[in-house]
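User: Could you go from structure to sequence for me? I need the amino acid at each position, not a summary. C-alpha cells:
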C-alpha cells in the first residue's frame, strides 16, 4: 500500500480521506490524538503539504505514488484542479542565469520555467549568462507569483532521512539523547549511504524503530545512487535543460466546494465549525480563532449553523472602502490579477460591489465596445456563486456592456476574490444583444485535460441560465 505523510491545515480531513486506500504514516501529534488508530513512523512514498497561501496542497514523492495521491485529492470536489510540475522537489537542472536581483539570481531551468537562487546558496560570484547546476529546494505552485527556490548542493529530502552531498557523516534534527541515539543507531543499520553523501535524520525519525530507519536509509541510498548516475551521465553545455528528477510534484488547488467537502470529512473525526477550511484559507491568523471556537462550542451546537461569512469578514476583511483584487485563475494553473478596485457596497450575507477605474484603452473583450480612460468597471460578487457580472460604464454613465464570467464558486478573501475561470462567458452588448462566448476555449480545455467533462457541463448549464436571465 502506498504510504503518505500529511501536514498543514487540511491534515485532519485529508488523513480521514486518505487512510481509506493509503497508509498514512509519520502523523503529527495532533493527528495521533484525534484518531483512534495507530500511525507508523515509517518511510513515506509521498508527502502532502499545505501551500503557503493555504489555497491547496503539494504532493511530492515517488512518481507513481505522487500521481495516485494527487488523483485521489483531485476528486474531493468539482472545483479541484491537479497540475504536474516539471520543477519538482529535488529536480536538478543545468540552468542559465537570466537576471540578478538584490538577494539572488533568476535562473532559467528548461526554457519555460524559472527558479530563484539566493546568493547565500552559492560559492562565488554569479552574473547574467552564467551556467550552473541547480536543484529545486522548494517547488512553487503554478498559481503563485513565486519562483521555485533553488540550491547548488545536491540533496535528497525525506520525511525520516535526508541525504546530502554538502554534509559529512551523520547528524539528527532531534534533540538530546535521542539525537545521539539516532547517530549511533546508523552504524547498526544494514544499509549505508553512497560514498560522498551525508546523513541527516529528521524529527519524525525520533519515533521510528530500527526496521523503519533501515528501510528509510536503504530506499534513500538507492535513490541517491540513481540520482548520482543521472547527474554524472548528463551532457555538459546543454543549459538550460533538465538533468534528473528523483521525485515528482503535483499541485492540487481546492475551490470553495472542496473546502466544505473537507469540512465534512474532518467533522467525522473532530468538532468542526461550518467553513472551517474556508476560514483558515482566508487568513493565516484565523487558524487560532477557529481552533478556539471548536474547543469551547459543542459539536451539536455547530451542526446546524451556516458559514459565518459576515463575522469572518468583519474580523479579517474585506469591508466597505477596502481595496480588493480580482484574482483570476485559469484551468491550466496560471493565475493573474484583473486589477484592484474599491469595495463600494458590502453585505454581511456575502454580497459586495467592487468598482474599478479603467486606465487603459482599446476594446472590451467580446463586447467590441471602446475602452476609454476613466471608464468604470462595476463588479457584483456573491460568495459561492458560479458566476459574477461586470458592467462597464463611461465617465458620463453610458452603459458600454455587461460581461459575465462563469467560474468555480467565488470565494471572498480579505485581499481578493478567488476562483478559476471556466472560459465560457456571457455578454450583453449595449444594444441589448445577449450571447454566450468562448465555448470553443472550454472545449479545448476539456480536450487538454484541464477541465473535467462534469465541470464543463456545469459551466455550460450556468452560462445557459445566465443567458436566459439577461
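Assistant: Here is the amino acid at each position, in order:
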Amino acid at each position: 500500500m502506498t504510504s503518505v505523510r500529511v501536514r498543514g491545515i487540511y491534515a485532519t480531513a485529508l488523513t480521514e480521506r486518505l487512510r481509506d486506500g493509503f497508509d498514512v504514516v509519520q502523523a503529527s501529534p495532533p493527528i495521533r490524538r484525534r484518531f483512534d488508530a495507530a500511525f507508523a513512523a515509517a518511510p513515506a512514498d509521498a508527502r502532502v503539504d499545505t501551500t503557503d497561501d493555504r489555497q491547496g496542497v503539494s504532493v511530492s514523492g515517488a512518481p507513481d505514488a505522487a500521481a495516485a495521491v494527487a488523483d485521489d485529492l483531485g476528486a474531493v470536489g468539482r472545483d479541484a484542479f491537479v497540475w504536474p510540475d516539471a520543477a519538482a522537489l529535488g529536480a536538478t537542472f543545468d540552468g542559465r542565469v537570466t537576471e540578478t536581483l538584490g538577494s539572488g539570481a533568476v535562473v532559467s531551468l528548461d526554457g519555460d520555467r524559472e527558479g530563484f537562487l539566493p546568493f547565500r546558496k552559492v560559492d562565488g560570484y554569479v552574473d547574467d549568462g552564467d551556467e550552473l547546476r541547480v536543484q529545486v529546494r522548494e517547488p512553487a505552485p503554478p498559481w503563485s507569483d513565486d519562483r521555485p527556490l533553488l540550491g547548488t548542493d545536491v540533496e535528497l529530502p525525506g520525511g525520516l532521512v535526508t541525504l546530502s552531498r554538502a554534509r559529512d557523516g551523520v547528524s539528527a534534527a532531534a534533540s538530546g539523547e535521542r539525537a545521539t541515539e539516532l547517530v549511533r543507531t546508523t552504524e547498526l543499520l544494514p544499509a549505508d549511504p553512497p560514498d560522498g553523501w551525508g546523513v541527516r535524520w529528521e524529527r519524525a525519525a525520533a519515533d521510528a524503530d530500527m526496521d523503519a530507519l533501515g528501510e528509510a536509509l536503504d530506499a534513500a541510498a538507492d535513490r541517491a545512487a540513481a540520482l548520482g548516475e543521472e547527474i554524472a551521465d548528463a551532457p555538459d553545455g546543454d543549459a538550460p535543460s533538465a538533468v534528473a528528477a528523483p521525485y515528482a510534484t503535483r499541485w492540487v488547488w481546492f475551490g470553495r466546494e472542496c473546502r466544505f467537502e473537507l469540512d465534512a470529512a474532518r467533522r467525522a473525526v473532530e468538532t468542526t465549525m461550518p467553513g472551517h477550511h474556508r476560514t483558515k484559507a482566508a487568513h493565516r491568523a484565523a487558524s487560532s480563532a477557529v481552533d478556539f471556537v471548536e474547543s469551547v462550542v459543542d459539536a451539536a451546537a455547530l451542526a446546524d449553523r451556516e458559514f459565518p461569512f459576515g463575522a469572518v469578514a468583519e474580523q479579517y476583511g474585506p469591508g466597505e472602502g477596502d481595496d480588493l483584487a480580482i484574482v483570476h485563475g485559469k484551468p491550466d494553473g496560471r493565475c493573474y490579477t484583473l486589477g484592484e478596485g474599491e469595495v463600494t457596497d458590502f453585505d454581511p450575507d456575502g454580497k459586495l460591489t467592487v468598482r474599478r477605474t479603467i486606465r487603459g484603452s482599446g476594446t472590451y473583450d467580446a463586447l467590441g465596445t471602446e475602452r476609454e480612460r476613466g471608464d468604470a468597471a462595476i463588479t457584483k460578487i456573491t460568495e459561492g456563486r458560479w458566476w459574477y457580472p461586470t458592467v462597464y460604464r463611461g465617465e458620463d454613465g453610458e452603459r458600454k456592456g455587461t460581461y459575465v464570467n462563469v467560474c468555480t464558486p467565488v470565494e471572498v478573501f480579505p485581499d481578493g476574490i478567488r476562483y478559476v475561470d471556466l472560459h465560457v462567458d456571457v455578454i450583453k452588448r449595449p444594444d441589448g444583444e445577449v450571447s454566450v462566448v468562448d465555448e470553443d476555449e472550454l472545449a479545448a480545455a476539456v480536450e487538454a485535460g484541464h477541465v473535467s467533462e462534469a465541470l464543463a457541463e456545469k459551466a455550460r448549464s450556468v452560462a445557459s441560465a445566465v443567458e436566459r436571465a439577461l
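One structural detail worth keeping in mind: The longest strand covers residues 335-347.
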